[in-house]
């Protein structure tokens, strides 16, 4: 029997499930509003707008669960990055993903109760959860209440710039999601990390 460690508390799993589901709605409706032809939309435009707004508000409120949870429980400690030796450990992890993994070498930073994330995972999660997600929430709320946006920045429309930033970060988060789901398949078995995010228990390699 593989060794299991309890890594994902209930509040985190609830946050993650709502977040993942709502992100899928946001990406589908966002792509539809941005790219589809008005005469043949992927999702009817007015519906896409309403669903995108509702899902965006849910993600924003849900983000407060993530922030509070990481503030008051031990989970927040896994997101603290130590700068000393960071580059070296990132290179080590990269090398493992490019080479060692395929030779079945042991992971350089195995997951344990004290170390939930490898260095690359930690930097990606911090960048996503504390930089990209706040930017997309703030720009999204601003676009929901456009009267709050400054009208001109260096002669460019403030709404245009806000929308550009919102769309760019939306693209980056979509790229994150694809990579995130791919890396989630690298576990004790291809499905074990997904099971872990449902039942709370991480299965060790
Ligand atoms: C279909 C969508 C998604 C799936 C299947 C998925 C899957 C997973 C899995 C299996 C884990 C546990 C293993 C690990 O730590 O890597 C995880 C953790 C995590 N996911 Fe996702 N995810 C999805 C969407 C997202 C989105 C949209 C975000 C953020 C924008 C996100 C952020 C995170 C974070 C921050 C963790 C670590 C949480 C913690 O332990 O503190 N995920 N995800």
Number of strands: 4
Task: Name the hetero compounds present.
Answer: protoporphyrin IX containing FE
What's the main sheet like? 2 strands, antiparallel
Helix content: 55-70%
Q: Which word captures the global form?
A: elongated
Report the CATH superfamily.
Transmembrane di-heme cytochromes, Chain C
Q: Work out the radius of gyration.
A: 19 Å
- Identify low-pLDDT runs: none
Quickly give the structural class. Answer: mainly alpha
CATH topology: Fumarate Reductase Cytochrome B subunit
N-end to C-end Cα span: 11 Å
Task: Give the domain tally.
Answer: 1
Describe this structure in words.
Strand 2 (152-153) and strand 3 (156-157) form a beta hairpin. The chain is elongated and about 55 Å long. The strands form two sheets. A two-stranded antiparallel sheet has the order 1-4. It has a two-stranded antiparallel sheet with strand order 2-3. The chain starts with a strand and ends with a strand. It is built from six helices and four strands, in the order βααααββααβ. Helix 1 packs antiparallel against helix 2 (45-72), helix 2 (45-72) packs across helix 4 and helix 4 runs antiparallel to helix 5. The chain has one domain: Fumarate Reductase Cytochrome B subunit, CATH 1.20.950.20. It is mostly helical. 62% of the residues lie in helices and 5% in strands. The structure holds protoporphyrin IX containing FE. Protoporphyrin IX containing FE binds at residues 8, 12, 16, 19-20, 23, 75, 116, 125, 128-129, 133, 173, 177, 180-181, 184, 193-194, 196-197.
């Amino acid at each position: 029997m593989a060794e299991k460690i309890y890594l994902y508390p209930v509040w985190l799993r609830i946050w993650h499930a709502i977040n993942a589901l709502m992100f899928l709605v946001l990406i589908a409706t966002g792509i539809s509003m941005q790219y589809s032809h008005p005469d043949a939309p992927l999702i009817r435009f007015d519906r896409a707008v309403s669903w995108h707004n509702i899902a965006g508000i849910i993600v924003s409120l849900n983000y407060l669960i993530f922030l509070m949870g990481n503030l008051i429980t031990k989970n927040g400690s896994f997101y603290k990055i130590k700068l000393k030796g960071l580059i070296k450990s990132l290179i080590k992890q990269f090398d493992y993903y490019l080479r060692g993994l395929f030779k079945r070498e042991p992971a350089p930073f195995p997951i344990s109760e004290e170390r939930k994330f490898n260095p690359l995972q930690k930097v990606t999660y911090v960048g996503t959860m504390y930089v990209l997600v706040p930017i997309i929430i703030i720009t999204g709320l601003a676009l929901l209440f456009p009267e709050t946006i400054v009208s001109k920045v260096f002669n460019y429309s403030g709404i245009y710039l806000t929308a550009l930033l919102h769309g760019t970060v939306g693209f980056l988060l979509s790229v994150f999601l694809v990579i995130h789901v791919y890396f989630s398949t690298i576990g004790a078995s291809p499905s074990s990390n997904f099971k872990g995010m449902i039942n709370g228990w991480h299965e060790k390699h």
